[in-house]
Amino acid sequence: MAINIPVKVKMDELQRVLKKRGWEEGFFNGKKAFIKHNKFWLWVAVSDEDRLVFISFPVEENSRLHSRGIQLLKNEIEALGRALGFTLPKEVVLWNSL
């Protein structure tokens, strides 16, 4: 699952804040991305044309683990939004794939 951020974000500011929060530069599907490794999840932030997408991958197939990873990623995005001046809509758009 992925969380779509429907607002424009200044990429240089986003990169600075992501790095401060432990995200590392990398690649995802051939695109520049930021990646954060957790014990149970791998999170990816990638810019896809006019949107920013955050994706959570659990380390094992487990629906509870996956749901928890999405919730924690949502919390991470909300913290990023506070630092960068955006808020998530009340209804977060989840994507099944990019």
Can you walk me through this structure?
The chain has 98 residues and is an alpha+beta fold. 33% of the residues lie in helices and 35% in strands. The protein contains 2 helices and 6 strands. It has helices spanning 11-20, 63-84; strands at residues 2-5, 24-28, 31-37, 41-48, 51-58, 94-95. A 6-stranded antiparallel beta sheet has the order 2-3-4-5-1-6. Strand 2 and strand 3 (31-37) form a beta hairpin. The protein is globular, with a radius of gyration of 13 Å. The protein starts with a strand and ends with a strand. The mean pLDDT is 86.
Could you say which structural class the secondary elements and strand pairing correspond to? alpha+beta
* SSE arrangement, N to C: EHEEEEHE
> What proportion strand?
25-35%
Biggest beta-sheet profile:
6 strands, antiparallel
Oligomer status: single chain
Secondary structure elements and their pairing?
Blueprint: E1 2-5, H1 11-20, E2 24-28, E3 31-37, E4 41-48, E5 51-58, H2 63-84, E6 94-95
Antiparallel strand pairs: 1-5, 1-6, 2-3, 3-4, 4-5
Keywords:
single chain; 98 residues; alpha+beta; six-stranded antiparallel β-sheet; 2 helices; 6 strands; globular
Summarize the entry for a quick read:
By secondary structure, this protein is of the alpha+beta class. It has helices at residues 11-20, 63-84, and strands at 2-5, 24-28, 31-37, 41-48, 51-58, 94-95.
